[in-house]
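Suppose a colleague, Dr. K., hands you the sequence of a protein chain of 228 amino acids and asks what its three-dimensional shape might be. Before reaching for any lab equipment, you can write down a predicted structure in token form. Begin with the sequence itself:
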Amino acid sequence: MLGILFGFIISWLLLYVFEKKSILALGFLPFGKRFFQFISGFLITGFLCVLAQVFESYLQSSSWVINDQISSSLILNSFWWDFKSVLTEELIFRGAILYILIHKIGNSKSILISAIAFGVYHWFSYGILGNTLPMVLIFLGTGLMGYSWALAFAKTKSIMFPFGLHLGWNFVYNTVFSKGPLGETILISSGGKELSDWVSLLNFSTGMFIVPAILIIYVHYFVAKEKS
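The predicted structure, expressed as tokens, is then:
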């Protein structure tokens, strides 16, 4: 919680120093409109994540079973962890810095810088620094996802839509399908076979490349650009 508070304070200071704006410049208002964008983003990536997991289950011939240790507190704690981590990352990568960059150097360069920074950040968060192939794949995958979310920020003039997109993916992936660092939460994969090299690559590409590509296309062509 302190990290989020610190993020808001730093964001506010940056916005004031460079743009003479308050934290509201990140597009929290009007509330109804921004909440709708947040929920829309959450549902879009949540649905895409479900499709990706169903596809993986099909490839592995596995199934999903409900965790018999499931509880409301387990789900809430996991959701809160996802919420905090996502909001912190959004404030860093799709917050004040991106807002300032867009006003200084334009959308295209700013979105690219944000995407590159997001990809590099995951070298450290995933602990893969020094492993060349994983570094390349993770950089491309998370960079593409970061590009789609930065594009969403630029088009909507709000952090809320990319926040929803980010949280929808992370919550479904981490909490619903128990794929994150918190261990078993709602659903647990049962049975299945080990994937061959090419099939494993196809499965990996689904979440890392195909989903971000779909999001980029969706945001670029179907999300209306708001006026400043």
